Amino acid sequence: MRQLSAGDENLIADIMSTLTLAQHSLASGDPLPAILPTPLVGRAMQFKKLRGELQADGNAKDFLAGQEGRHWMAAMYAFVRFLGTVDELIALLKRAVGETSYIDAESLGGHVY
């Protein structure tokens, strides 16, 4: 299996801070801060790009065909679903408190991430 590195520590910190802020908002009824490290799915991809890990390591077909590859793929699928669910939770919390945001995707190069 893959091991965590320093770049993953930043992602874990983003996840934990987002969950902590969501918990506080739910418990107290206070609105979320204006700036959050979300969407987490996009940030996870950004961290991987910065570390240059989106390139294929060796023969990906052989890796994914093996038992370890199938376990890795199932874990990645679950992790991305988890991040997406947290992103949805934040969006629901923001709508619940009446917060609206406008993001000009064109000024970001057509991408929100």
Key attributes of the depicted protein:
mainly alpha, 113 residues, 4 helices, 0% strand
**Overall 3D geometry?**
elongated
Number of helices: 4
Distance between the termini: 27 Å
Number of strands: 0
Rounded to an integer, what's the Rg over CA atoms?
Answer: 17 Å
Strand content: under 5%
Helix content: 55-70%
Indicate the mean pLDDT. 77
Q: Give the structural class.
A: mainly alpha
Structural domains: how many: 1
Largest pleated sheet: none
Helix and strand pattern: HHHH
Low-confidence stretches: none
Write the layout of secondary structure elements.
Blueprint (H helix, E strand, L loop, with lengths): L5 H23 L11 H12 L8 H6 L1 H30 L17
Helix pairs in contact: 1-2, 1-4
InterPro entries: BRE4-related_DUF2421
Protein name: DUF2421 domain-containing protein
